[in-house]
Amino acid sequence: MSFEIALSGISAINTSLDSISNNIANSGTFGFKSTRANFSSMYAGSQPAGAQIGSLTQSIDIGGGVLTTGRGLDASIQGRGFFVARESTGVEVYTRVGVFGTDKDGYLIDASNRRVQGYATVVDAAGVPVPGAGLGAMGDVKVPSGQVAAQASTKVDYVSNLSSDWVAPAAAFDPANPATYNSADVSVVYDSLGSKHTVRQYFVKQATPANTVQVNYTFDGATLGPAATLSFGTDGQLVPGALPPLVPTPAPAGVDPISIAFNYTGTTQFAGDSRPSVNAPNGYASGTRVNVQLSEDGSVIAEYSNGLKQKVGMLAIATFPDEQALVQVSDTSWTTSNNSGTALYTTPGTGTAGDLTVGAIEQSNVDMTSELVSLMTSQRNYQANTKVISTESDMMQALMQAV
Fewer Cβ close by (within 10 Å): the C or N end of the chain? Predict the structure, then answer.
C-alpha cells in the first residue's frame, strides 16, 4: 500500500511541476495568467490512498505589469475582461493580449491573425459616421482602406473678442484699405470636389447703433454679401440671432452650389485685445488612409492624409460570470466551458469591464520568486516520496532475506 501512496504523491508532484514549468516558461509571454496546482488527499473507504491534483486555479483576476510601447494599436485592459477574436473556423476566443494590426483586406486582427470583434460605427448613405447614433452591430471590425470622399463646407464656427476699444473708421469699408476696418481673419473652406477656398472676414466697428460690429466678407478675393451685423449687450455678450448663409454667386465652375453659414455664438465685446479662440470650418478635401489607432474608450480611429480622423468601430470586451472556469488554449487565449457561463459583451470601462490603456501591453503575471520557491518545495516532496519507495523496498528485501 505504501508503494501506491508514494506513487500517487510522485504523480501529483509531476502534475504540479508541469504547472510550475509552464508558468516559468511563460514568464515573458504577454497577457499570460499563471496557474496553481491544488493538492488534495485520496481515500479508499477509510484507508488513505495518497494524493492527487484536485484542481487547477488560474490567476485571471491578478493583473500583470504594464509595458509601455507607445504604439497606437497596442492596448491593455486594466481590470476585468478579455478582447474578443474570431478564428477562421468562426469560433470566438478571448485574450488579454492587446497587440493589434490590420490585414490586407482592412480587417482589424490580433497578434495571432484572428479578426478582432467589435461594434460597427453607424454611417449615413454617403458612408459618413453619424454623430450620436450609438453602436452598430457586433462583428469583425473593418477599417476602410480606400480614399475618403471630399465633403463640402457648410458652416464656420467662429469665436473671438471684438474689442470695445475699437474706434469706428471714418471712411467707408474697402477691403484694399486697412484703415477702413478694425480687424480681419481668414477661414479655409472646401467645395464639393475638395478644392480649397478662402473666406475672409472684415470686422468694422459701427458708430451707431452702439455696441455693433459689421462683418464684411470676400470669397477668394471677390466681395461676398450680404454684410452681417453683430449686436452686443451692455454686458459684452452677443445678442443671439441667426445670420443668413453666404452664397458665392456665381459658384466656382464644376462644383455644387456653395452655402456657408457663420456661427458667432460665444463671441464677446470686451475691452482689450481682439483674440480669436475658435475658427473652425467643417468640410475637408479627399484623402487616403495613413494610420489606424485606438482611443482610451476603445474606439478604432482611422486617420487620413487630409487630417480627417474618423471613428470606424469600437472594441468589444467580454466578461464572464465565472472566469476561473474558462479553458486555456494556445496563443494565450481562453474558450468558454459549461461552468464559465455565457460571455457578456460590452465596451471598455462599461459595467464590470476594465478601462483601456492605449500604447501599452499587459505583461505576464508570473511571480518568478514564488515559482522558484514552489519548484524547490516540489523537489523536496519528490525526494521524500522516492525515499518512501526506497525504504519500502529495503524493508521488503530484509523480510525476504529473513524468510
Answer: C
DSSP readout, 205-257?
E-SSSTTEEEEEEEETTEEEEEEEEEEB-TTSBBPP---PPB--SSPPTTS--
* Strand pairing category for 344-346 and 333-335: unpaired
d(CA 335, CA 355): 22
Q: Return the CATH architecture of domain 155-281.
A: Sandwich (2.60)
Q: pLDDT tens digit string along 299-327?
A: 999 999 988 888 989 999 999 999 999 99
Q: Which three cell numbers stand for residue 340?
A: 464559465
Per-residue model confidence as pLDDT tens digits over 169-215: 999 999 999 999 999 999 999 999 999 999 999 999 999 999 999 99
| Cβ neighbours for 27, distance < 8 A, ≥ 6 positions apart | 364, 366, 368, 371
Q: C-alpha distances in angstroms, 92 versus 26, 163, 257, 303?
A: 23, 62, 50, 29
Q: Who's near 16: CB < 8 A, 6+ residues apart? A: 37, 39, 53, 374, 378
Q: Are 307 and 291 in contact (CB under 8 A)?
A: no
pTM, whole model, 2 decimals? 0.77
Phi-psi region of 272 (alpha: psi -120 to 50; beta: other; left: phi over 0): left
Locate CATH 2.60.98.20 in the chain.
155-281
Residue 401 DSSP SS3: helix
CB 130 within 8 A of CB 124: yes
How far is Cα 283 from Cα 157, in angstroms, rounded to an integer?
A: 12
3-class SS of residue 362 = strand
E strands, 250-384, in order: 261-263, 278-281, 287-294, 299-304, 309-315, 317-319, 327-329, 333-335, 344-346, 355-358, 360-362
Q: Which cell numbers in the block locate residue 96?
A: 488579454
Query: Using N-to-C axis directions, what is the helix angle for 368-402 and 2-25, rounded to 10°?
Result: 160
For residue 131, cis peptide bond before it (omega within 30 degrees of 0): no
End-to-end CA distance of the chain: 21
CA angle 274, 279, 280 (to 5 degrees): 165
**DSSP letters for 161-197:** B--TT----SSPP-TT-GGG-SEEEEEEEE-TT--EE
Do strands 261-263 and 155-159 pair parallel, antiparallel, or not at all (unpaired)?
parallel
